[in-house]
């Protein structure tokens, strides 16, 4: 299946900034108001997004949806990915709270949440929750400016910590 690395987390954070589409729409956050952005994320009942990332293992493109009522999470690997195209990973605690199910090729498999292919991924935990938890370890935040995303000016936040890794959301 898939292994988590820092590039994935960084790509996911960038995906949030570029293609955030919350079902419970609220007014966009004022420039520089990170707390309003977090509140918008926390108020979402469910969300869907498409994201992709590149790593040494290739390019993966995902269609990702979350229903926070369960939470139920569905991740599909899209065309244009280097591998696993068509695979679908589903987490549904009403089926099994400690496992994800995956349709890979012609077969179906289950993996425990402690399996190396699942640990540290958004397959069983909401992506935005995962990103916000990751950003807590980066104490320095600043407004880096704005970028045009789908015709709208969007605030870009930079997070940095003690390592050389930096996140832009």
Keywords for this entry:
169 residues; alpha+beta; three-stranded antiparallel β-sheet; 3 helices; 19% helix; disordered N terminus
Descriptive account of the structure:
- With 169 residues, the chain is an alpha+beta fold.
- The chain has one domain.
- Helix content is 19%, strand content 38%.
- It is built from 3 helices and 9 strands; from the N terminus they run H-H-E-E-E-E-E-E-H-E-E-E.
- The strands form 2 sheets. The protein has a 6-stranded antiparallel beta sheet. It has a 3-stranded antiparallel beta sheet with strand order 7-8-9.
- A hairpin with a 7-residue loop joins strand 4 (88-91) and strand 5.
- The longest helix is centred in the N-terminal third of the chain and has 14 residues, at 6-19.
- The protein is globular and about 45 Å long.
- The relative contact order is 0.18.
Brief summary of the model shown:
The protein has 169 residues and is α+β, with helices and mostly antiparallel strands.
Low-confidence stretches: 2-31
How much is the average pLDDT?
77
Total number of β-strand segments? 9
Number of helices: 3
Strands of the widest sheet, in order across it, are: 1-2-3-4-5-6
Give the SSE string.
HHEEEEEEHEEE
Strand content: 35-45%
Q: Indicate the percent of residues in helices.
A: 10-25%
Judged by helices, strands and strand pairing, the structural class is: alpha+beta
Termini separation: 27 Å
Secondary structure topology:
Elements: H1 6-19, H2 34-42, E1 46-55, E2 58-67, E3 72-77, E4 88-91, E5 99-104, E6 107-112, H3 127-135, E7 140-149, E8 152-160, E9 166-168
Helix pairs in contact: 1-3
């Amino acid at each position: 299946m898939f292994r988590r690395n820092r590039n994935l987390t960084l790509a996911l954070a960038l995906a949030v900034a570029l293609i955030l589409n919350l079902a419970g729409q609220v007014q966009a956050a004022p420039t520089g108001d990170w707390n309003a952005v977090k509140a918008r994320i926390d108020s979402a009942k469910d969300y869907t997004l498409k994201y992709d990332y590149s790593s040494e293992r290739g390019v993966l493109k995902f269609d990702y949806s979350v229903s926070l009522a369960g939470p139920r999470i569905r991740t599909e690997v899209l065309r244009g990915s280097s591998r696993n195209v068509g695979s679908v990973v589903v987490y549904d605690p009403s089926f099994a709270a400690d496992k994800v199910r995956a349709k890979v090729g012609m077969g179906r498999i289950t993996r425990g949440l402690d399996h190396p292919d699942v640990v540290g991924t958004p397959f069983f935990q909401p992506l935005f929750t995962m990103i916000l938890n990751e950003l807590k370890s980066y104490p320095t935040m600043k407004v880096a400016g704005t970028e045009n995303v789908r015709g709208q000016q969007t605030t870009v936040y930079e997070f940095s910590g003690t390592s050389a890794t930096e996140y832009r959301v």
